[in-house]
Amino acid sequence: MFRKGGVFMGDHERIILDVNEQEIEMLNTICSHFKEKHGVELSHGALLRDLMDIEYIRITEDRHKYD
Question: What domain of life does the native source organism fall in (predicted)?
Answer without folding.
Answer: Bacteria
